Input
Amino acid sequence: MARPREFDTLDALDRAMELFWTKGYEATSLQDLIDGMTVSKSSFYDTFGSKHDLYVMSLGRYIETVLAGAVARLESDEPGHQAILGVFDRLVRELTTPAGARGCFLDNGAVELALDDAQVRRQVETGRARLTRAFRRAVRRGQADGSIAGHDSRALSRYLMNVRHGLIVTAKTRPRRRSLEATVRLSLGVLDRAAAADSAPAVTVGS
Output
């Protein structure tokens, strides 16, 4: 009979995710993981394979837990405009906590490893695609109920992803919360002005 594991696998995975998220892949040693996950070296290898395997699993866990909260709200029955505002409000609150400067785990993985690591790149692309689709569904609901101006929903969802990314990068410098809130208000104003922007005359920069 196989000996039962002496630890909770998901709890250990959550601990690994937090370590990788905070320190990055290269700076997190195997000993950091073993200590932080409170597992033996043999249990680590038997359950998770390698450090790299665990990192890829941790990215998946991030998508299933942290990212899933925003996706669920954006895909709920909540009015689209309200859902989008709620997601950004929560993001700003999270970014202005002591842990906020570590940013988004997926973005960190993209910068550190995705260029040369196909497995990491797939996880990053999976997470980003899932959130982009969720933004698009919220945009479409808002357009249907009139709370979001008509525009290409795909372009708007990508724009919202870029706004999110910009806030996360900016938060690494630990700005004041009201500064991020002002940026959100200005950036999300495009949801109201999108239709007018389509018909507005072109403006030449510097004219």
